[in-house]
Amino acid sequence: MDIAAQRLAAPESAGTGGVATVELEVGGMHCQSCAALIEETLVRDPGVHEAAVDLTAGRASVVYDPLAVSVDEVCAAVTSAGYTAVPLTSANPAS
User: What torsion do the CA atoms of 34, 38, 40, 46 make, to the nearest 10 degrees?
Assistant: First the structure.
């Protein structure tokens, strides 16, 4: 299965249930293992509901609870794994 098609669900967050989506430009990935590591790193945060990384496009789509985690914290998680991350878009929280 293509890694970009995989969606890894995080444990339910303690937030209010509102969600937002951010698209990240991710740098430093060289292989599918890199993409998988980034996904695993992101979904460890209880505020992240889903993460999908597209190695070919160099992008990650992250569904998160904006009351539990910020976009800066999402990017910092990617950076802590040894990659770079810059937000491309951010959607407003939905009820």
Answer: 180
State pTM to two decimals.
Answer: 0.75
Question: Is residue 40, in this structure, part of any structural domain at all?
Answer: yes
Per DSSP, the residues of 26-62 read EES--SHHHHHHHHHHHHTSTTEEEEEEETTTTEEEE
User: Domain range holding 27?
Assistant: 17-90
Looking at residues 47-57, what average pLDDT do you find? 97
Q: Extract the tokens encoding 26.
A: 């991710």
80 in any annotated domain:
yes
CATH number of the domain encompassing residue 29: 3.30.70.100
Amino acid (one-letter) located at 59: R
